[in-house]
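seq:
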Amino acid sequence: MVKQELEQQRAPRRRRSKMEKEKTETKEKQKTEKNLDQTTTQSSPKEESSSAKEMTGEVSKDKKPKKEEAIARGLNMPISKKHAMYICSFIKGKPIDLAISNLELVKKLKKAVPFKGEIPHRKGMMSGRYPVKASTYFIALLKSLRGNSLTNGLDLEKTRVVTASATWASRPTKRGGMRFKRTNVILIAKEITPQNELKEAKK
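struct:
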């Protein structure tokens, strides 16, 4: 009987000790949370503005690196490689807008592309032709080159078609062993500055 009475007296003491431990633990958790909140509020306003911009999706345009060149590729174009080569030499070294306007005149049969060989003479040149089909494909390719140069941050007034090359693509066969016309074309435009002009002259 005495043992039972002692255990009944000790039980509320144990409960009180457990309650006190839980209270102390909750107080410690609250303190740690407050410290974390203070550290976050003490962050610099620049970091907050940058994080807000990232959340909203706003990115500053000044941070985008400016590229030195713009490239446009035409793959498996159904045009003659010979015509493409002469158009490339006709375009090379010109501004993009001027090249487009010249090819528009070629489509209208008002301006000829200089060719080599036994070809009839044209106005203002020894020999030339009007490759209408190839010029239409080149106009589309030059327009894409102009768009790429704008996205890369190049100045259209200073940009020139630096490289223009045409090579054979994979040519599927026709009936009778003949092959279709397929050509790959690469156009590269760069901003021409006085330093670049001197380098090209030395080459």
